[in-house]
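Appendix B. Chain record.
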Amino acid sequence: MSKTVANGSKMVASPSDNNEVRIKAAVLIQTWYRQYTARLEARRRAAWVVYQSIEYDSESNQINLQKFFDDILKFGSKMSRGGASGSFAQRLQESVGAASREERDLLNQTKYDNIEVEKSYSGPRLSFPLSAPQVQKMIEHFSKGGKLHARYVLQLLHETRLVLKARPNIYRPSTSISKQMTVVGDLHGKLDDLLLVLYKNGLPDVTNPYVFNGDFVDRGDNSVEVALLLFALQLVWPTAVCINRGNHEDCVINRSYGFVKEILQKYRLDSCKIVQLFSDVFAWLPLATVIDEQILVAHGGISDKLDLRLIDSLDRHRYFSAVRPSFENGKIDKKEWDQLMELLWSDPKPQLGCKLNKSRGGGCYFGPDVTENFLRQNKLKMIVRSHETNPEGYEFCHGNCVLTIFSASNYYSEGSNRGAYVKFDNSGQPRVMQLCASKSKQLPLGRRLATFEDAALRGLRAKIAASRVQLVAAFSELDFGKTDCVTIAQWCSAMESELQLSLPWRRLRPRLVKLTPDKRVMYMSTFQRTAVQHQGGRSASAPDASMMESVYKSREKLETIFRIMDRDNSGHISLDEFKECCRVLGRVTKRNLSEDEIVDMAKALDLNKDGKIDFNEFLEAFRIVEQSRSSHTLSSNPQTKSADPEQSSPRSPRVTTSGERISQASQSTFFLPSPRSCSHQSPRFPRSRCSSVKVLHQEGANPRLGASEKAKASRQKAKTEKALSNSEVSLKSAVLIQKWYRRYKARLEARRRAAWVVYQSIEYSSESSQLHLHNFFNDMLRLGMEAEGGGGGGGGGFAQRLRQSDGGAHDERELLDRTGFESIEVEKSYSGPHLTFPLSASHIKMMIDSFGQGGQLHARYLLQLLHETRLALQARPNIYQASTSISKQMTVVGDLHGKLDDLLLVLYKNGLPDVTNPYVFNGDFVDRGPNSVEIAALLFAFQLVWPTAVCVNRGNHEDHVMNCRYGFIKEVQKKYRQTANKIVQLFSDVFAWLPLATVIDERILVAHGGISDKLDLEQLGRLDRHKYLSALRPPHSEGGKVDYLEWRQVLDLLWSDPKTHSGCRPNTFRGGGCYFGPDVTASFLRRNKLTMIVRSHECKPEGYEFDHGNSVLTIFSASNYYSEGSNRGAYVKFDNSGQLHTVQFSASKNNLVPQGLQLSSVEDGALRSLRAKIAATKTQLVAAFNQLDPDKTGCVSVTQWCTVMEAEMKLNLPWRTLRPQLAQLAPDGRLLYMSTFQRATVQHQSGRSAAEPDASMTEAVYKNKEELETIFRIMDRDSSGQISLQEFEECCRILCQATQRNLSDSEVTDMAKAMDLNSDGNIDFNEFLEAFRIVEFQCSDIPSGD
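C-alpha cells predicted for this chain:
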C-alpha cells in the first residue's frame, strides 16, 4: 500500500513508494532496451541480406562472364585462322584456365635464381627446408605490414608445389596422436583473423593439427601474406596441416576479386611469375579432408550425385579454374566437372531435395534428405563446410549434421559478423570458438550498425547504377502515361526482375526512392545518388557508349577483362591490344564498329597520351559518382532517354556545386551550403534542375521574373532561411552535447584518479607494514635466540625456522639434496608439456599453449627448469651489459605480477625473443596475480633457450619474505601440494641469483626501483648478490658484522621512487628505499656516463610515465593491476641509437563494458580495500575518536574525523572527498564516527567477549590479514599449509615476550585448542583466520556507543 509521511508542509514518499517507482522505471528501461536491440537486429539482418545477395549475384555474374569469355575465345579462334587476333585469343585461353602448362615451361617461366635480394630488404631471409623460427619471423614481419621478398615467395611456392603434388585429392588425417583437430574456415585475405586464430589456438604441431578449408585469398588486403603463411606452416608441419581448395583458389576468380591485383601492386616486376605459380599451386590443393573417417571437411558442400570415389580419382590439376570444364583431347567430362563444382560451390538449404544454385550461378542447393543419404552411403557422421558468411561465424543445420564455419570476422563491413573456428576431439565432438579482430570494439552498437548499413547501401546503389539502362526501360514500359511514376508494387517487381536480387524491396524503398503525394514511386529518383556517368563529354549517340555500357554492367567484369588483356601483368595495355580486343568484342556482341570509331575510342581512353591505357584510364569514362537530388534527371520521353545525363541539357557543361557533393547523411547533421559557397558557379543552369540555392541566384540575376516565379523564389528563400536556422540550432545542440561530454569525461577521470590514489596508498602502506613486520620478526628472532641460549628450549625450534625463512644462507649441497627431482615421476595422466634439456623453441611454444589453456607444468620439470636456470644465472654478473649491435633493438618489459595474459599479449604483439628481438624483463614478475609460477617458468625458459637475448632483472618482489605475504608461496602450495617445500626453497635461491640491473649499450640503465645519491654501480657490481635471499634484512658476514652501506645500495636499487622535488630522502611511504629528485638523476647520469634510467616498481594509469626531464622512464606491464579497467600496461622498445617507442596494451576481458560501469567496479574495489584497512585499525580509531568526544555524543567534526583518519591510518588520502562513502553526518552537520565501521570490521566469531585474554593481543597481531598470513607462512616450516599445536604455543610464548603481555600456559593452551576447530591436532590457515575476519553487516548490527 502506498504511504506518505508528513514532514512540516511537505509530503515525503515512503520507502515502499520509492521502491515501486524504481521497479516500474527498471521495467520500462528494460522494455525499451529490448525493443531497441530488436530494432538494431532487424536492421542488421536487412543489411546482411543486401550484402549476401550482392555477393552471390557477383559470383553468378562471374559464371556468366566465363561464358562470355568462351564466346570471345570461339570468335577469337576463328579470327586467329585469319591472322587477326590470334595472340589475344591465346592469352584469353591461358587466362581462363583452358591452356595446359608443361612442367618444364612452368619451371622456366617462374625461375627465382636470377632475382637478387637487395641489401635494403629488412624482412625475413628464408632458407629451405623451413623451420619454426623462420615461420615466427614471417608472422612478426607480416603483422608489422611487411611483405616477403619476391625471390622467397617463388621459392616457397615451388617447395609447396612439390609437397602438394604428393597429396591425394581427399586427405585423411587422424587424431589418434593429437587427440584433437582444428578446422578454420574462409579467411579471405584477412591477416588479423589468421594471427588471432594462431594466438588463441597455438601454432600447428603434431599435437595441434589444422585443416584450413579454402577461400584464404581474394577480397582482403593481405591474401598474399595469408597464403604464404599457410604454405609455410604446411612445409614445417606437413603432417599437421592440410589446406583444402575453395572456390576462390581459382585463376579466373582471382582476377575479379582482388588477388591478382594485390600481387600486381606488391610485386610489380615479378608479378607475372608469381601469378602463374600461385595458379598452379592452387590447382594442386586437395579437394577435401576426411577426419578419422567420420567428418568430411569440404569447402562448399555436396549433391545427390556426389561420389567421393570419383572425386578421389580425378586429375585435379587440370582444373586451373573450376568455373570452366577441362578439355581432355578436345572432349569434356561434364560429370567430373559437375562433381567438382558441387564440392566447391554448393550450399545447404532447409528444403528437401537438390536443385540448381541460381543465386551463385554454380553448384546446387542440397536439403537434409540429401545430407542424410550421403552420410549413410559414405559411413560419415558430419559435414563441415565454409563458403557462406554467418553473423556469428558458424551455423548448424540439417539436424546438426552440417556445420558451416566462417573465420573472417567483419567480412562485409566493420561490425558485420564474428569469425569462428571449430575444434574436434578424437570422439568427433565439436567445440566452436568465436573471434573478432575488430579495431573499433569501443564504438557503440548503433554506430557500428550505421556503418554496416551505409556500406550495404553503397554496394546496392552501385549495382543499381550498373543496371540503369535496363531499369529505365522496364519502368518506361510500366509508365504508360509518361508521368515518371509507378506504383510501389510495380517498382519492387521491376527491381526484383532486372537486378536478379531477392531482397525486401518494400523495406528498402525509403532508402532508395521517393514518393509523390499520392504514394506513387518517382522511379527516376532511384538513380539520384549513383549513376554510370560517361566523362568524355560525348553524347549517347557516340558509337562506343551503348557497347561500353553493356560491357560495363559491373566494375568487376570490366576489371577482369582488363586483366586478361594485360598479358604481362604490367598494369597497362597497349593501344594495339585494345583495338584487337574491340574487334573481337564487336564480333561477339554483333555490333558493327568502323576502324575509325575503334581508333577514336582507344585514343579517348588514353588520357595522358602515353600510348598505353592503365586501369584508371580504362574506368575513367564509366565510373560511379555521387550526386545530389537534382542531378542526372532524364527526360520522360523514351525516344530521348539516354545513359548520358548531359543530353537533356546541351546548352551548358555539367558543373557540380559543393552542396551537391555532400551526401544526404552529411546534410542531415550540421552542414548546409550557403549562397556564398556557390557564388562562383555559372547562373546558366536549366531551371528544372536548380536547387533552392540556384533559384536565389537566378532571382538576383534577372529581376524580370513573373509573379508566380517570384512567389516560388520567395518560398524557396524562406525554406533556405529555415534550413539555415535549423542548422544553427543543430550546431548549438552539438556544442552543448560536447560540453556535457567533456564534463562527463572529466568527472570520470576525477573519480578514477581518486580510486587510484586509494589503491596506491593502500599498496604502499602494505609494503611499509611489511618492513615493520620484518622488524617484528627480528624481535621474535632475538627473543627466540635468548630463550634458546638460556636453556629454556621453548622457542629454539621456531627461532631456527624463522631465521631460515628470513633469508638465512643455504649450503649448496644441502640445497641440492633438498630440491632433487629424480625421485618425482611423471604420471601417465599428465597432459602438459614434456620437457627435455637443453630446451628448444618448440618446448617454449608447448609451454605457452599449455599455460594459455590453464595448464601447469609438472613438478619434476619445474624443479629441473629451476636447477638449469640457477646454473645459468650463476654465470651472470650483477649488472648485465646488453648490446643492440646485432639486433638493432631492445624491448624492456616492466612489472607483470603474475598476470599471464599480459605476458602472452606482449609476446603476441612483439614476438618471441631471439637474437634479433632481445628482451629485458625488469623484475616483479611474481606475487599478486594468479599465474606467477607460469610466468616465472616462461621467463626462465626464454633465458635458457636464448641466453644472449633475454635478461631477467630482480625486483623487490623476488624476495622470500615478500612472497610469504603477497601470494607467490600460497600459489605454489595450491598448485604443488606435495612438492611445494622443494619448489619454494629453489625459487628463493634462484631469485637471489638474478642480476640486479642491466645496462643497454652503455647508455641506458634498466633497474627495478631507482637510484639514490649514494648509489655506486661499481660497488653493486662487486657485491655477493646471492647473500640477499631477502633484501629486507641485511645479511650477517662471517664475523657477525653487518655491511649496512652495501645493504642500502641493494635496497635503494630495488625500492626507490622518483619525485619532483630535489634531493634524496627516505621513502617513508613504502618504508624502504628513497625518494630521488631530478638533481640526483642528473648527477648520477653524468657520473656514470649514461643517458637514461628505465625503471618499473610503480603502477601508472597509462602504463608508463616520464620524469626528470624525460631522463627517467617508468614502465609497468601489468594492465588492470588494481581492478578491471584501472590501468593500461606498456612496454618500451629502444633502437640502436637510443630512441624509444612505448607500446600500450590492455588484456582486459571486458572491452565492451561501458567506461562508467568499469569505473564503478574500480571504485568499489578501492573502497572495499580501504574499509578492510579501517576495520583492521578499528581499536586505534575508536580510541582516538573517544579522546575527541569527552561527552560521549558519538559525534566529532568533519575536520577532526579527517585528522584522526590521517593520523591513525597513515594513508595520505583526500579524506573529505571520501567521507560520504565512509561515514554519515548527524542532522547538525557533525559526523557520527561509529558509522565509519558500519560496513566492515574485525569481528570475533567464537562468541567470547572482548574482555577475554586473547582478544586484544590477537587484534594487535592481526592488524591486517596480510601480516597474519605472513606469520602463518613462516611458522609453517614444511610449507604443508598447516602448523602443529605445539608450534603455535611456542610462537605465542615468544610473541608474549615481544609484546610484553603476561599470559599463563593454560590461557595459551586454551587459545591454541580453540583455534583447532576440527580438533585434528593441526591448525590450517582458515582456522587461524576464522576467529578474526572481515565481514559485511548493516549499521543496526553495531551499537552506537561501541
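Further analysis of this model is presented in Appendix C.
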